[in-house]
Design a protein that fits this description.
- There is one protein chain.
- By secondary structure, the protein is α/β, with parallel strands linked by helices.
- It has two domains: 2-211 and 393-450, 4-Layer Sandwich (Metallo-beta-lactamase, Chain A), CATH 3.60.15; 218-391, Rossmann fold (3-Layer(aba) Sandwich), CATH 3.40.50.
- The protein contains 14 helices and 22 strands.
- The protein has helices at residues 37-40, 64-67, 70-75, 86-112, 127-134, 218-231, 245-258, 272-283, 292-301, 308-313, 335-342, 361-366, 397-406, 422-435; strands at residues 2-5, 16-20, 25-30, 56-58, 82-85, 137-140, 146-148, 151-157, 165-171, 174-178, 201-205, 235-239, 267-269, 303-304, 321-325, 349-352, 371-374, 377-380, 384-387, 414-418, 439-441, 448-450.
- The strands form four sheets. The chain has a seven-stranded mixed beta sheet with strand order 6-5-4-3-2-1-22. Strands 7-8-9-10-11-20-21 form a seven-stranded mixed beta sheet, with helices on one face.
- The chain starts with a strand and ends with a strand.
Length: 451
Amino acid sequence: MRVVFLGGTETVTGSKYLVETENTRILIDCGLFQGYKWLRRRNWQPLPLDIANVDAVILTHAHLDHSGYVPVLYKNGFRGPVYAHYATVDLCWVLWTDSGRIQEEDAKYLGKHNLSKHEKPEPLYTEEQADKAHKLCRSVNFKTKFQVGDISIELTPVGHILGAASVVVEADGKRIGFSGDVGRSNDLLMLPPEPMPPVDVLLLESTYGDRLHDNTDPLQDLAEIITETAKAGGVLLIPSFAVGRAQLVQHLIVSLMDSGKIPRMPVFLDSPMAIRVSDIYRRHNKYHRLTAEQCARSEQIIEYTQSIDDSKAIAEQAGPHIIIAGSGMATGGRILHHFKHWLGDHRCTVLFSGYQAGGTRGAKMMQGVQHIKVHGEWLPVKAKIRSLDGLSAHADYQELADWLANSKLTESMNIQLIHGEPNTLETFRDFLLANTKFDVDIPDYMSILRV
């Protein structure tokens, strides 16, 4: 077998790994590049190595940086199967169609206001193309082997988000593992990751490979931020990822209100995508820690705003309130419209609850910029910018090392570090070389590994 690294190298986005034997070609993950403009341009470049003609796509999970390029494959002629866990398939329809719709809306907005260098801005793909691409999906169970050509494939639960899996492919007497994004053993929402089966080579994610998570209580931190903002008479804006983070944040806010630790106030989930995802989490609750009743409680307390008119009406809400809206890195979605209304108000707080990739608005705001560009307009940043790091769904470097140790992998295994920023990859590589007996490498974009 050979692996071609088509994304997720020296960056945390665009995960794509082409696995080839003499007779079969499959793509493990098929993600969009996000963040820096030079990375996002790769989404528009010609498909490398004729990947539109692979035999199948295997998805570790539904996040767009791992799955969101599938509609581009479809747009370019791919009609093969896309295999993923049942819950991942459900989530992909929501994420892909929403992504297509947002891209169409953004292209229309840019064209209407002459904010693009192109005479007629075009979306990367449309909502209709995303819907058609989803019809290629085939649902599979965890720990059930299936075959694509001469390659055997198996998915194992790995925490992180609903349906997330590590993937092991086997052919020619060799086994290659793909960690996907590894969750945490003590995650507030997801069950702990299960061990990786023995493999010859492991492609290991490194998103938090240079840090340890804060041990502070996120519930207490969240309560303090909400109370502080409410006392100031301000609005709390929470840019949130629609999958996993929005469901957890809702549960925490409702729990704090029910326990009397924060004042009751209006809470809005202003994300049609996150609303649909919340229903999927409720239906697949056996794969996470919340009961169906706990999921339903969030729906009773929080106001879900579906339509654009309902979203606009939030601006008329008086007094302290909380708005949860996409996207989590403030790269798009309805949160940007709330930024226009509230970002210049010093009483307000913007609370980031997850990883902010370099180049995103979220990362820039966390770095302390005084102005941020939204839809061609520079907005002053006078609101307080806070983060709630304790909610991360990614394992840190010690948790990743513990996961490797629990997997009882052979010392001869080679590790290829992927899905991390350059400095993070180097730091994590040094840690693994000093604390394990594995051989550890960092692949380059478009490099080839023969197994």
